[in-house]
Amino acid sequence: MSNGAATEVVEVATQSQSSRAFQSAGRRLFNWVAGLAILFGLWWIGGYLIYINPDTTTFADFGPIPTFEAFPILWEDGTIQAAVSASGYRLGIGLLIAICVGVPIGILLGRSRTFRELSNSPFQLLRMISPLSWEPIAVIVFVTWNQAIIFLIAIAAVWPVAFSTAAGLAKVDPAWFKVAKNLGAKPWHMISKIILPAIAFDILTGIRLALGVAWIVLVPAEFLGVTSGLGYSIEDARETLSYNHLTAMVLVIGVLGYLLDSTCAMAIKRFSWHRQT
Amino acid sequence: MAVRGVNIKIEDLTHRYSSRSPVTFDKVNVEAQAGEALVIIGRSGCGKSTLLHIVAGLLGKTSGSVRLDDKEVTGPSSRWVMMFQAPHLFPWMKVSQNVGVGLSFAGWPEKKIRERVAEALALVHLEEYADNNVQDLSGGQQQRVALARSLVMEPELLLLDEPFSALDAFTRAALQRDVRSIGKELGINLVMVTHDIDEAVLMADRALVMAGAPGKIVHDLRVDLPDPRERQDPAVQATRSRLMQIFHDAAHAPSGSSSGSEADNGDPPATEPESVGIKQHV
Q: B108 and chain A: CB distance < 8 Å anywhere?
């Protein structure tokens, strides 16, 4: 085969490969849009059925059109920004505490058999307690409602982080420790250069799970006591019978949760060294 | 890179994993001069890898001593570095980061690490792969990275625990030749464990045959052959046959007996090992 023909074959193969990648991306985008369109369609049908039924027409504001009409109002009076900011602060601090506590616990669980055996039953017991059942105790223990909510988020989020970290460590090749020791690694090198990069994927997966749990706990935790946040704004809209505001805030929760989860998924992809097969 | 070898003195080294487990090897005595390449051969389970781990300071001994230039080995050190059967590279690091990781543990500045890593990669002919992901390399290239990672520490003693056993024949032959020539070029000691007699002949200045349960060094054979050594060379073939005979005799000798240059009853080995190779043919 001549050089020119070989180059042509390579070019055709490359074009075919990029064409397949383009088609795959196009298919994914189409399905993504179609999925959301189906959800929106079901919501619209539901809203229309509520609207045409005289018994339920009072709740017609739950439909998509009144909801989208509410967005500019909620944005202009600062309701969305204030709620997102207050909830974001609680979620961020709660998750940070969960990570700071959960990762070292996970490393200990993975590295120390004594600690693992000693802590197994208490941790499993504590893990199975619904985070919201701590609320009355948290309200008594903490000075402010804000602190109590942060505690509830942290207690809900700590377990996925800790157990995912421990599971990641269990999969780490023990030879890496031997090699690192052989090359003069000190204990802090083992943690910073070997353990943490080796299990970054598992820690981030744990954080992603923790975020999901924390997001679920956050909204009901904000129903009581506080006068800010996404949970409060929903409760406030319900009490004032502003159903379109209520649905708009529910939509904000959904979109924000989706964006946070997608960010976590991107971080997992970015920091993972595992090869996709 | 400027390094030198080390005088090795292993005296009455004995090991057992626990008080209940059998003795892995008993009263092993080995001496080697700076720059010598020792290859320990023996069947699986005779304790040769354990011996290597103790010399590397990665495993504790039961009794006896391991001295390098009269200094007792009490733990791992950048002066004696081990290469394992598998490369065990860190997959989250690039090739250059893997090679320089030991220097970063030692607190070297980034600029100096880069310079030293470039030298080490040149030694193993992987200069062009510095920025590659180690997962993209072949098995042989990964083992070369592991070799560079060991050499970058400028060790006086390189310990090799069957490092080529998982490689294909062509890659293995190339690495055997390269490791020996790099060792000689740098003047460092090599202590290698293998159960491949060809490999022992191609790489050793002295081949130590380990056998028995508990394990003992039952023969010490000096391999005086010129470099580069070729498998089909009659002198290499003759040494291989001799070593095979020793290995066979050792395997069929009654338990506890020893032969070759090492005396019976756990006495210290003879100062001069048996010598075969080119000197016998000239």
A: no
Cα dihedral across residues B100, B104, B105, B106: positive or negative:
positive
Q: End of a domain among B134, B154, B174?
A: B154
CB-CB under 8 Å, B58 with A183: no
Identity of the residue in A176, A183, A200 whose CB atom sits nearest the CB atom of B105: A183
Handedness of CA B235, B236, B241, B246 (dihedral sign): positive
H or E stretch covering B219:
strand B216-224
Same domain, B172 and B122: no
> Domain of B62: which CATH number?
3.40.50.300
Q: B182 and B152 in contact (C-beta within 8 Å)?
A: no
Alpha carbon of residue B278 to chain centroid: 23
Nearest chain A alpha carbon to B150: A183
Contact of A191 with chain B, judged by CB distance below 8 Å, is answered with no
pTM strictly above 0.80: no
Please indicate if any CB of chain B lies within 8 Å of the CB of A181.
yes
Are B38 and B26 found together in one domain? Answer: yes
The answer as to whether B85 is a domain residue is: no
> Given a cut of 60, is residue A219 above it in pLDDT?
yes
The answer to whether residues B27 and B60 belong to one domain is yes
User: What pLDDT does residue B3 have?
Assistant: 54
B52 in any annotated domain = yes
Q: Identify whether residues B68 and B147 lie together within a single domain.
A: no
Q: How far is A200 from chain B (nearest CA, A)?
A: 10
Q: Do A184 and B149 touch (CB under 8 A)?
A: no
- The reported pLDDT for the residue numbered A152 is 94
Range of the domain at B47: 8-79+156-281
Q: Residue B233 burial (CB < 10 Å; 0-12/13-18/19+)?
A: middle
Per residue in B159-190, pLDDT (tens digit) is: 999 888 877 888 888 888 888 988 898 889 99
What's the structural domain count of chain B? 2
- Regarding whether B144 and B24 lie in a shared domain, the answer is no
Q: Is A186 on the interface with B (CB under 8 A)?
A: yes
ipTM: 0.77
Asked if the structure places residue B139 within a domain, the reply is yes
B161 lies in the same domain as B64: yes
Two tokens, residue B8: 């090795």
